[in-house]
Design brief:
alpha/beta; 5-stranded parallel sheet; 9 helices; about 40% helix; about 5% strand
């Protein structure tokens, strides 16, 4: 990369949230955004600085309202593992109103196949950001509860943002992995009115997008039981219908891994 990211001048940028359900690849997506724009992203979470900040750099901001970051990570009310807590955060603590109260109905929603997300979320809950949960974490009543939580909250969070966003868009993790990632990135930047796009930075960022920092290595692949698949498919259908009503790009279901045992590679 020709130039490392930097903070913009304070109060020169709009407050744009990049929101997702945990485990959707938001840290990796922040790396892409910083690589292309040359401006640091931020986070609403204390102690969660830029994912590509040099270890020797002293540039850290935990202030999502500084007006000096290109976008700010915000999982809203999804950063927990229980429906009771989720509803409490939404309705008693008012996080469900963030999009219009704090962001003036701006937002970019990052979506990833929930059948991948549920495994990443479980790994995170057990072993932290880059750890791997033991095989027994993916069986039994506790796993069933996690399936129910992710299936409901992944869709509920997505639909609320899709319905409330007036300035912004939705982007897809699977498309950022693909051969047309440049199109997806440019669509995101167009939605937040970032012009012009530096073609060399874009090309370089995509070339080096498979960096392994902040990623789980040797991540085992698990399978979903039919009843778990069906719950996830219902959630996918609900979100797809919400996207259709807004005339927004649809979930790239053709790129999804359904974690079907019959799909084992020989």
């Amino acid at each position: 990369m020709r130039n490392t990211p930097k903070l913009a001048e304070r109060d020169t940028l709009l407050n744009w949230p990049l929101t997702s359900f945990p485990g959707s690849g938001i840290t990796w997506t922040r790396q892409l955004i910083e690589g292309v724009t040359g401006i640091y992203t931020g986070s609403v979470y204390e102690g969660d600085p830029s994912p590509v900040k040099s270890k020797r750099s002293r540039i850290v901001t935990d202030d999502p309202r500084c007006g000096c970051t290109i976008m700010d990570k915000d999982h809203e009310a999804t950063l927990n593992n229980g429906l009771w807590h989720y509803f409490q955060l939404l309705h008693r603590e008012g996080l469900g109103g963030l999009i219009h109260q704090q962001y003036d109905r701006r937002g970019v929603l990052l979506l990833r196949n929930p059948m991948d997300v549920v495994f990443t979320f479980r790994n995170w809950a057990y072993s932290g950001k880059v750890g791997i949960a033991p095989p027994e974490a993916f069986t039994g009543p506790s796993w069933d509860e996690t399936i129910d939580f992710v299936a409901y909250v992944w869709a509920d969070h997505a639909i609320r943002w899709i319905e409330q966003i007036e300035k912004g868009t939705v982007i897809f993790y699977e498309k950022l992995l693909g051969s047309n990632a440049d199109v997806e990135i440019e669509r995101l930047l167009h939605a937040i009115s970032f012009f012009p796009v530096d073609r060399e930075r874009l090309k370089c960022t995509i070339k080096h997008r498979n960096r392994t920092d902040h990623k789980r290595l040797n991540n085992p692949r698990f399978f979903l039981e039919p009843q778990h698949q069906m719950k996830m498919m219902k959630s996918i259908h609900k979100v797809q219908e919400s996207l259709r009503r807004r005339n927004w790009p649809r979930l790239p279901v053709y790129l999804f891994d359904f974690h079907n045992p019959d799909d084992r590679k020989p």
